[in-house]
Amino acid sequence: MDPISPLERALHAARARVLADLVAGEVAEADVVSLVEESVVQRRWWVEQWPDGAAYVAGLVAQDVQDALLERYGRWPLCPVCGAGDPHALDVEPELGPDPHWVCHRAGVKVAAVGSLGRAAGGVPSS
Prior knowledge:
By secondary structure, the chain is mostly helical. It is 46% helix and 9% strand.
């Protein structure tokens, strides 16, 4: 059996982290999961061109899915921190960097690491 390449490990981890956040937000329907798969395919090419970018792929997949959901369904993920005012989405920071987090710019806080929204919303911890 061939060992899993660093590229595939990064892509599988990114997929798992974004899917965990979608499950936490109860939006992991089949068509939404397809958006994750589309992003992973596109990001595979991107990381093949720039292997040092493997550490950034989770944040990029999260942003891709967030953008695709905005176009089709609306804002995601909604901020669990701000209880008052208009509902607003969290942003991924850094936009291009390792260790991506969901951030609320209104409150000025890191809400959760990408893949850990379930913990931030009081749900089941993701593994």
